[in-house]
């Protein structure tokens, strides 16, 4: 796990004028895209043509990603515009980048810093998947300054507790997340900007019928109910859920 403020990649100075200009330009491009009818939007085929930061583009280039997959073409622009997303696509179709890029970009545009706490929570059903997501996050987020942590079973919870409250992004499995909610003093998810459930159908099978509101456990003090997180008093901009199979059970539970 990275230390608070340690960043996903190299250390960088405070936000520069170039970054501030880039954020306003991105906000205006995304504002236009959000206002345009969906069928009139020209969907980018290459990452370089997307309205995303140079840091993310550089991370993608370094990792060898140039062209969007079909699920990325369908999901990225709406998610970048801050819309909630409910998607299903088969294994290996590139869902991970379809949610990691919006996570990085929402925090970047909101000028999230090490002082702002937990801004993005990505929940995955298994350790192996969580680890894969974390590895991909480290690659594409390399140029950003955010701190990121991986919370999965099989490690000493005490060691994680020393750093978890300083993380901007967490990739976790449901059981370990619940453990931190129960046992880590000051663990706070109330400032979340983006919430991602990968393989949401499997997560819901694991945690039962309590669904997303309040995510994993009704009445949990460190995680306000979803409707509150989405109110103007809180900042949740988007919730992204993906499954590898689309079925009625998944759709009904996500309502
Ligand atoms: N645009 C892209 N160009 C090239 N390779 C890509 C692209 N997007 C994703 N990949 C690669 O394709 C592989 C599968 O992607 P990913 O793990 O995101 O799929 P997934 O749909 O999440 O599958 P799973 O359900 O198994 O997690 C990964 O190795 C990933 O790095």
TrEMBL record:
The keyword Zinc does not apply. Residues 1-40 are annotated as: Disordered. InterPro entries: DEAD/DEAH_box_helicase_dom, Helicase_ATP-bd, P-loop_NTPase, RNA-helicase_DEAD-box_CS, RNA_helicase_DEAD_Q_motif. SUPFAM superfamilies: P-loop containing nucleoside triphosphate hydrolases (SSF52540). Its EC number is 3.6.4.13. Pfam families: DEAD. Residues 45-73 form the DEAD-box RNA helicase Q domain. A motif (Q motif) lies at residues 45-73. This is ATP-dependent RNA helicase.
């Amino acid at each position: 796990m990275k230390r608070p403020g340690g960043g996903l990649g190299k250390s960088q100075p405070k936000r520069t004028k170039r970054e501030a200009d880039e954020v306003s330009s991105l906000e205006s491009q995304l504002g236009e895209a959000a206002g345009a009818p969906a069928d009139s939007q020209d969907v980018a085929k290459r990452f370089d043509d997307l309205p995303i930061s140079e840091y993310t583009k550089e991370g993608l280039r370094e990792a060898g990603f140039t062209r969007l997959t079909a699920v990325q073409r369908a999901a990225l622009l709406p998610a970048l515009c801050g819309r909630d997303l409910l998607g299903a696509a088969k294994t290996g179709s590139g869902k991970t980048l379809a949610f990691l890029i919006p996570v990085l970009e929402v925090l970047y545009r909101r000028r999230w810093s090490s002082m702002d706490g937990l801004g993005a929570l990505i929940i995955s059903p298994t350790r192996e998947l969580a680890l894969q997501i974390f590895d991909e996050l480290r690659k594409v987020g390399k140029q950003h300054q955010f701190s990121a942590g991986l919370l999965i079973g099989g490690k000493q919870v005490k060691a994680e507790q020393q750093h978890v409250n300083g993380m901007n992004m967490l990739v976790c499995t449901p059981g370990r997340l619940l453990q931190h909610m129960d046992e880590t003093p000051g663990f706070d998810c109330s400032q979340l900007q983006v919430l991602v459930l990968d393989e949401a159908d499997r997560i819901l099978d694991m945690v039962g019928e309590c669904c997303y509101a309040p995510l994993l456990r009704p009445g949990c003090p460190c995680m306000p109910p979803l409707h509150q997180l989405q109110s103007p008093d809180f900042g949740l901009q988007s919730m992204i859920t993906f499954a590898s199979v689309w079925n009625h059970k998944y759709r009904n539970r996500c309502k």
